[in-house]
Amino acid sequence: MSDGTPAPPRPSILEIFSAFLLIGATSFGGGVVAYLRSGLVAKHEWLDDKTFVELLSISQTMPGLNATNMAILVGDRLRGALGAIAAIVGICLPGGLFMFVAGLLYGYHKDVSGAAEALKGVAAAAVGLVLATTVQISGKSLKGIVDLLFVAATAVCVAVFHWSVLYVLLGAGFLAILWYRPRGAAKAEEAAP
Amino acid sequence: MSTNLKEIPALLLVFGYLSLLTVGGGMAAYPEMQTLVVDVHHWLTEEQLIHFYSVGQLAPGPNMMMVAAIGEKVAGPLASLLVVVAFFLPTALMTFVVGKLWTRAERWPWRESIRKGLAPVSVGLILSGCISMAKVALSGWLAVVIAVAVFGILLKSKINPAFLILGGAIVGYFGLKG
């Protein structure tokens, strides 16, 4: 890392862990990325916005959740491999404990009157949430009819034909990347087979 | 407490594999999770899986911490921890390595191709996850009403989704309890 840019801040492993633990404990309702930005960029000033967006674009491209991928990338930037471990453990710990306890309690839900009905309502609400998230992501990341065709083809293969997600991911991913392959700058926009 | 410790190797394999499918979000791995967890290994019923996923929307932090509940349910606390590690470690390692190469690959033209190409595929996978879930969760008119209401409210407002999930629990409790 000797490329002439100013030295990045060097918070301690414990500071990294605490910052991510706090984000992991307070980011209710999804949208962890917004909490990450306000914690890491605005509050601690460990990253500038440009770096944050750049790391986010890696996180979104790689398999893995945005939140955990960001923890790895930011932790590594601040303190190398140990920083990355501190960050991902910190961000996962609160939610992991929450769900561990939920899993324990779940064993007893049949004894509680109305719990099954409440869970039905929760599941229905979650479907609405996931669909809304899908629409919001689509609005941000999709452009044009070709993208919609790739979305539809992927969804039909998985949800209708029940093909293995792995093969669909590899196949459709390969074709889509090939479609967006690097071309000469001049004909990059209008080229179509 | 649990006699299912022999399930742990299978849990590690399944969740390590599912980890690799979470392109664009945890939901992308949902259809395969349903196949493996429900149909192949019979660890949960499809309703239980949806319950865990949905309750997981109330937990803070990364979206898929619900895998901890699956591990707990199948084989207790140790399995819970191991499932979380199996689910996050493979992608964490990949991201760690790629993060080091990525900035150096700034001028590599395929970088942008990969980003653009994977975007619609990941949306398609998330949509499939949503369909798998809806097929099971939307039984009965009240469930459909709840889902449509949550969907509409989230697109129109910036309310914290956790409140709507809790709202779903309340409506379900009073609306379905006969």
Q: What oligomeric assembly is this protein in? A: heterodimer
Number of DSSP helical runs of chain B: 7
State the order of secondary-structure elements of chain B, H for helix, E for strand.
HHHHHHH
Q: What sort of overall outline of chain B do the alpha carbons produce when their principal axes are compared?
A: globular
SS summary, helix count of chain A: 7
Helix content of chain B: over 70%
Q: Give the structural class of chain B.
A: mainly alpha
| Spatial separation of the terminal alpha carbons of chain B | 35 Å
Strand content of chain B: under 5%
Largest sheet of chain B: none
Rounded Rg of chain B = 18 Å
What is the overall shape of chain A?
flat
Helix content of chain A: over 70%
Gap between N and C termini of chain A: 43 Å
Radius of gyration of chain A: 21 Å
Stretches with pLDDT under 50, minimum 5 residues of chain A: 186-193
Count the strands of chain B? 0
Mean of the pLDDT scores of chain A?
88
Which residues of chain B sit in consecutive blocks of at least 5 with pLDDT less than 50? none
Q: What's the count of strands of chain A? A: 0
Mean model confidence by pLDDT of chain B: 91
Write up what this structure looks like.
Chain A is mostly helical. Chain A has 7 helices and no strands. Chain B is an all-alpha fold. Chain B is built from 7 helices and no strands. Chain B is globular. Chain B starts with 7 loop residues before the first helix and ends with a helix. The model of chain B has no long low-confidence stretch (mean pLDDT 91). At the A-B interface, α1, α3, α4, α5 and α6 of A face α1, α2, α3, α4 and α5 of B.
Summarize the entry for a quick read.
Chain A is mainly α.
Quick tags:
heterodimer, A: mainly alpha, about 70% helix, B: about 180 residues, mainly alpha, 7 helices, about 75% helix
